[in-house]
Amino acid sequence: MILKNAKIILEKETIENGWLEVENSKIKSINSGLTEKEGIDLEGNCLLPGFIDCHLHGGYGVDFESGTTEAYYKLSKLLPQEGITSYIQGSVTNSMENNKKYMKAFSVFMNNWNNDGAKCLGIHMEGPFISPEKKGAHELALLENPNIEKMKELMELSGNNIAIVTYAPDLQDGSFTQFLLNNNILPSAGHTNMTFDQFVKDYKIGIRHITHLYNGMSEINHRRPGLAASGLYYNDVLCELITDGIHLHPDILRFTYEIKGYQGICIITDAMNAKGLADGEYKLGNLEVIKEGMKVYLKNDGNLAGAGATYDHNVKTMMQEIPNLSLNKLIYMTSINIAKQLNIFDKTGSIEVGKLADLTVLDANLNVQKTVVNGKIVYEK
User: Where does this protein have coiled-coil stretches (predicted)?
Assistant: First the structure.
């Protein structure tokens, strides 16, 4: 497959008018100028590495708690319209009985994915090992301290497909953090009221990821600096940001970018099952929520409960709010940083010869025109 007449966005440079050759699911060559070879004319649109959302719970009526392989396939097929080529399926706090059922169904889905949508890279397990003080939209009665034995059981049921675990590091002695690292699972601090000093203990063990910075965590307080301060302080800690224009004030978004830079942030949606659906009442796990536009909140207290925005919307918000942000820097926050964090950058995350052809085509207004996964066009506008 030839993709031609494209503005190709690379890590360090931009090919203003070039073409790209794909063979056997991988990028065979990257070229500048015109070509007379037959191919797909991208009409001067931008060709970027495919977006990787490491924290989404669902959308279009589907989430992890749908509990069927059919539902998981549906989500995989619909996500490319947002420019997503890879994602990590988020779960919310649920009963152990339900989690066992969901994990089994998800394992079947992962083993039988047919290259007909976005690639799922595993599960982002958010809860139940989180703090009651910062539970957000998680059911209080089901929360518990990090438990290695339960973690082992869930890992086995999932077919060892758990990729990230969000937990409160202050509720364990460091052994849970070490266990995750030993099993190639990315530990992520979130939904915790921990102090800066408490984070340092697990930072020394190896934690380098923070779940949706500012949301569901101890704040930046000048007498009790919390997890948010830790995320800003350490340059090598990657911070998720929900850039939907709702979860973070624009000034906080700019403030964070000034400190962390484009190499310290990964854009996420934290989207739940009502994304892409009409406004109304829905469920997030066992909790009732209300969707109004792109805002989703708990029915009982009005607190935010996941999100209703698409990934391409969050990309547009980031480009709008950060002055002079180039696409070369944007792709670090959508693709490169998280690919490195997940140790898959040798395979995907940037446009390089030999890597998988996971690509997103955007027009001048950042609207998704095409999405390519493993060298196959899986979405066209």
Answer: none
pTM, 2 dp: 0.97
CB distance 42 to 4 below 8 Å: yes
Q: Which CATH class is domain 1-50+348-380?
A: mainly beta
CATH superfamily placement of domain 51-347: Metal-dependent hydrolases (3.20.20.140)
What is the distance between the alpha carbons of residues 271 and 287, in angstroms, rounded to a whole number?
Answer: 15
Catalytic residue among 270, 279, 301, 358: 270
The whole-angstrom separation of Cα 228 and Cα 134 is: 13
126 labelled binding-site residue: yes
223 is in an annotated binding site: yes
Catalytic site includes residue 202:
no
DSSP alpha helix (H) spans, 113-165 = 148-157
Any binding-site annotation on 143? no
Segment 203-215, tens digit of pLDDT: 999 999 999 999 9
pLDDT per position as a tens digit, 79-96:
999 999 999 999 999 998
